[in-house]
Amino acid sequence: MYFDFILGLITLASYLVLAAGLVYKYIRTRDIGFVWLGGAVVIWPVISGLLIQAIERRVFRGPPIKLYPFTLVGHRQMSIGSLITSLYSLQHLIEIGLLLVAILYLCRAKPDDTRTIT
């Protein structure tokens, strides 16, 4: 009972500290890679989690969704478990794509960089 509440508070505090650190680093460096990193690590997990919860509620309790792949569940060609697994896999695939973009922005050579490539 209290464990869920405490775990939720720790998660929220972690997201807030991470977001504050990324905003601070972006303000100091003005590197757009930190904005992408914030999107991949803070914003996307929150938005996709809320979206998947809404879809789960609608699939389990609401009227049928007339959009592929949800129609497969209605026609008994896909189980609800397979659908939810597919949604979570898609969530992680998008998150990995956002992280890749952030890494590419953060690793690119800057014109004022004094490093030499040997």
Structure commentary:
The protein is mainly alpha-helical and 118 residues long. The protein has one domain. The chain has helices spanning 2-29, 33-61, 70-74, 80-107. The N and C termini lie far apart (58 Å).
User: Low-confidence stretches at least 5 residues in length (pLDDT < 50)?
Assistant: none
Main sheet: strands, sense, barrel: none
Total helical segments: 4
C-alpha Rg (nearest Å): 20 Å
The ordered H/E elements are HHHH
Helix content: over 70%
- Domain count: the total is 1
Portion of residues in beta strands equals under 5%
Structural category: mainly alpha
Shape: flat
Distance between the termini: 58 Å
Mean pLDDT: 85
Number of strands: 0
Topology overview:
Blueprint: H1 2-29, H2 33-61, H3 70-74, H4 80-107
Summarize the structure.
Helices cover 76% and strands 0% of the residues.
Which terms summarize this structure?
118 residues, mainly alpha, 76% helix
